[in-house]
Amino acid sequence: MTYVVNDKCIKCKFTDCVEVCPVDCFYEGENMLVIHPDECIDCGVCEPECPADAIKPDTDQGVERWLELARQYADVWPNITAKKDALPDAEALRDEPGKFEKYFSPEPGSGD
Ligand code: SF4
Ligand code: SF4
């Protein structure tokens, strides 16, 4: 089992999530994070830390799409373990629907 980041994360980067992960298994894209499904130990401590409610257990309905995305990008995006500044539109776009279709970028972030 693993936890999964969905598209509510896009354009956030509050990164409260990465600070609490005991195994440092978050990976950073240009405007979204993913959790490495093979590294996550399923502790659940990151879920309540996310202000966008973007982190879900993979037992939830409808997370398959985001699990597949994590499998695709966790091996190519850089590791992120420390909090950084949120993106400029993080608050304004927090509850915007359809973020993946509008804003997803496959480009890597800068990591730590
Ligand atoms: S706090 Fe939540 S929405 Fe923000 S970067 Fe972390 S997982 Fe993404
Ligand atoms: S559930 Fe635990 S191990 Fe998995 S990403 Fe969240 S904090 Fe890290």
Shape: globular
CATH architectural designation: 2-Layer Sandwich
Secondary-structure element order, N to C: EHEEEHH
> Mean pLDDT across all residues, rounded?
96
- Please give the CATH class: Alpha Beta
Number of domains: 1
- The CATH topology: Alpha-Beta Plaits
- Decide which structural class fits the backbone: alpha+beta
Taking the sheet with the most strands, its summary is: 2 strands, antiparallel
Q: Distance between the terminal alpha carbons, to the nearest Å? A: 26 Å
Helix content: 10-25%
Number of helices: 3
Strand order of the largest sheet: 1-4
Bound molecules: iron/sulfur cluster
Q: What is the tally of beta strands?
A: 4
Radius of gyration: 12 Å
Unreliable residue stretches = none
Q: What share of the residues does DSSP label as strand, in percent?
A: 5-15%
GO molecular function: 3 iron, 4 sulfur cluster binding; 4 iron, 4 sulfur cluster binding; electron transfer activity; metal ion binding
Protein name: Ferredoxin
Keywords: 3Fe-4S, 4Fe-4S, Electron transport, Iron, Iron-sulfur, Metal-binding, Repeat, Transport
Cofactor: [3Fe-4S] cluster; [4Fe-4S] cluster
Topology record:
Blueprint: E1 3-5, H1 16-20, E2 26-28, E3 33-35, E4 55-57, H2 64-73, H3 99-103
Antiparallel strand pairs: 1-4, 2-3
The structure holds iron/sulfur cluster (2 copies).
One iron/sulfur cluster binds next to helix 1.
